[in-house]
Amino acid sequence: MKIKSTCIVFALALFVSACTSGRLEYFTAEGERKVACETEYTWQPSVDKYAVEYVLAHCAQEAVSRGYTVEDTALLEKDLLVPPPPEGKAWSHELAKQHHAKGMLTDKEYGYLIAYLDLGHDSD
Fold first, then answer.
1. pLDDT in tens, 44-75
2. Secondary structure of residue 20 in the 3-state scheme
3. Beta bridge partners of 35
4. Is 97 exposed, middle or buried (0-12, 13-18, 19+ CB in 10 A)?
5. What is the end-to-end Cα distance of the chain in Å, rounded?
6. How far apart are CA 83 and CA 86, in angstroms?
7. How many CB atoms lie within 10 A of CB 109?
8. In terms of C-beta distances under 8 Å and separation of at least 24 residues, what long-range contacts does 57-64 make, across chains too?
């Protein structure tokens, strides 16, 4: 019984540790601290960190465009361009996954693409 409960605790710890999350804090003109975005990816940590980075950088740009001041100004310097899709195709989660598996996308490009698609930017 003790081994079984230890395995459950280990599995839970492994699942929780595979979570990458972040949030964007900003300041209003009155100096009030607020949170604009909270995001979490729980699939592949080497890719998830870039998906979180993309979402937070996008939110930071949106916050600044509305006149707010973001706490993490490094997010404003992120280049949020994603690679163009293969000729004649549009990016989808499955296509991005295939290209990443074949080594045609880096972890960062793949993470950015996942967030880009999740935010609906493919329909812009």
1. 899 999 999 999 999 999 999 999 999 999 99
2. strand
3. 25
4. middle
5. 54
6. 9
7. 18
8. 58/115, 58/119, 59/24, 60/24, 60/26, 60/36, 62/36, 63/24, 63/26, 63/36
